[in-house]
Amino acid sequence: MAAQRPMTITEKILAAHAGVPWVEPGQLVEVRVDFLMANDITAPLAIRAFREMGATRVFDPERVAIVLSHFAPSKDIRSADQCKVAREFAREQGLVHYYEMGEGIEHALLPDRGLVLPGELVLGADSHTCTYGAVGCFSTGVGSTDLAYAMATGETWLKVPETLKFVYYNRLQPWVTGKDLILYTIGRISCDGATYKAMEFTGEALADLSMDGRLAMANMAIEAGGKNGIFNPDQRTLDYVAQRAQRPFSPVWSDPDAEYAEVYEFDAAQIEPQVALPWSPDNVRPLSQVERVPIDQVFIGSCTNGRLDDLRTAARILRGRRVHPEVRAIVIPASRDIYLQALKEGLIEIFMAAGCVVSASTCGPCLGGHMGVLGKGERCVSTSNRNFVGRMGHPESESYLANPAVAAASAVAGRLCHPEELGIRYEEVAGVA
Amino acid sequence: MGRVWKYGDDVNTDVIIPARYLFTTDPAELAAHCMEDLDPSFAANVRPGDVIVAGRNFGCGSSREHAPVAIRAAGVACVIAASFARIFYRNAINVGLPILECPEAVAALENGEEVEVDVAAGTIRRVATGETFQAAPFPPFMQEILRCGGLVEYARRKLAAAAAGGTGGTEGAR
């Protein structure tokens, strides 16, 4: 056998799960999986495929989660029937991690509950499963049939990806969040810049970033086509998982001499809040260069930016202010736990007093499902992850992707807006995130 | 033989099948709305055997398998693209929607013209001129899944073998 090669964190996790000492990019490996997830849209197809495969039992009822979050609470009879299919399967299989409507959006819920852990290999039937790379695991989105196969066998096959390394040096500027770093990155490499590749995020600027900020970054790796987005665990990661982990786990880290297909170095000090204009997450401009277009709706939520940090930031902007009379503002905490904490901190009261609609956890508005669908020609500033044609409603509607501070300021101004245009100094909101 | 429906780069899963129709998994119903937000004329006019020809990053976005299911159920014989998004690529193989990666064919072929596609050989023939294009072959592992007619049948055989042979299940998949 050839000598072990230095490996990236992604390669190490794949090698460990393939039961081999090392792997290299391009290699096809059969790997065991640590955890699987499907939601109310993807589970029904997966369940059908599972049965057609002749499978009767999931490989481990403690390692398969079903989360109802997309069309739940159900918006109509047919989506209720979809949820019912998922619910009945969860009961039949005795799934330990079945989460009913309102419990949370999958990608907020699973990391917070310690179900996806450093060094693990996780598949989800949802493209934003890459979110969990924030805790140092390999996680990637798959289709329903792939998920069914893994549910039946506890395994899947993967091609070992090349890794792109993104180094963010220097310190973050005021108002700049994980969301801005990832939008900036996608704008630089385009929405197929990382196709078939792993995206590894490093650099001193990220050391300052909260877990919520890192989750937002990893979440959008798929918008550059990335197979996964991943952070090497640091003390902050280990502290986060130590309070939550529901299983023993073994973190791994990239070797210092690991090989990368490409290394991108970005000066964080040069990055300002970013906006993705319609109709692609790679149509990115610095906010200072974006026309202050009037808007009809603001959405603060989603698996990208519905976390506590995001709500705290938005609340600091909205406290004592009112949403513009011609704007609808929707705030959706990404899980019940986040909602409860936001209640305790008085954030929900701030949102309600400002005139926002606050909803139980759902993915609804992000994908034009329910709770905030856009009409013809309407324009929304959204903290979510995609602004494709028709993503949030009518094909002639428009979504602008931005961080929660920009979204909240825009809700007040009735147009795209930087918080400082409202006279808000960063020091007033700093220290919350 | 089929007609070319030509589209540009970054055709995403939201325009292939918008989320507002994801309350069903019925292929025929999904097909009725296929490509609706990009080309409202598609679903009504596509004929069995037609091919979609598109630029880079076809199928980017959501993991929704409803997208390749909708295209297949619409009667499309093959999607030829300069490149595919990763999850869509896997999903297409898994549900038995033939796809070919061939930038040369994409550059040459025009909307509405007729082509003949041999998916197994990876060849695309332009009927008007006889010109042919060769797509990159599938990796051997994927050919094996395709030989089984998709991942469901591949898995069915593997699970059956495991049940019959006790511990030999994993080996059968290699």
List the helices and strands and how they pair.
The complex is a heterodimer of chains A (433) and B (174).
Chain A: H1 9-18, E1 28-32, E2 35-39, H2 43-52, E3 64-67, H3 77-93, E4 97-99, H4 106-112, E5 121-124, E6 138-141, H5 144-153, E7 155-159, E8 162-169, H6 178-189, E9 197-202, H7 204-207, H8 211-219, E10 228-231, H9 235-242, E11 262-267, E12 274-276, E13 284-286, E14 297-300, H10 302-305, H11 308-318, E15 328-331, H12 336-344, H13 347-354, E16 357-358, E17 379-382, E18 398-401, H14 404-413, H15 426-429
Parallel strand pairs in A: 2-3, 2-5, 3-4, 5-6, 8-9, 8-11, 9-10, 14-15, 14-17, 15-16, 17-18
Antiparallel strand pairs in A: 1-7, 12-13
Chain B: E1 2-6, H1 13-16, H2 27-31, H3 42-45, E2 51-54, H4 66-73, E3 78-81, H5 86-95, E4 99-101, H6 103-108, E5 114-118, E6 123-126, E7 132-134, H7 140-147, H8 151-165, H9 169-172
Parallel strand pairs in B: 1-2, 2-3, 3-4
Antiparallel strand pairs in B: 1-5, 5-6, 6-7
